[in-house]
Amino acid sequence: MSNLPFPFPHTRLDVFRVALQMAAKAKELAGRVPRGYRTFADQLIRAAGSTVLLIGEGANRFSTGQKRQRYSEARGECGEVAAAAELLATLKLVPAKEAQEVLQLAGRVGAMLTRLLQRFA
After folding, report:
1. What is the pTM of this model?
2. 20 lies in a domain?
3. Could you point out which of 64, 105, 109, 111 has its C-alpha 20 to 30 Å from the C-alpha of 79?
């Protein structure tokens, strides 16, 4: 997607691309939340965005400890995305199928981040 003269390290990570997909689906899902429950939608979007940004930040850090910290935080935010999607579906505020798509992407991102954390342990 990026045509930068200097490719940032995060652009080479599959987890970054899947996290972007998750964020896009989370935004779509948040758009379906009815009035009166927008705080849940906002939290979903914030957590998805934070996941993407923390992955980008971690990939661009030099020390192993800093990378691990950012990837750990990203994994926590990804868990929040999954929890928010599950909550919205359980409360029947969004279609279950659409929430399931976000959950599947969050599961992939979480698994990839777990692997990165193991690599930098």
Report:
1. 0.94
2. yes
3. 64
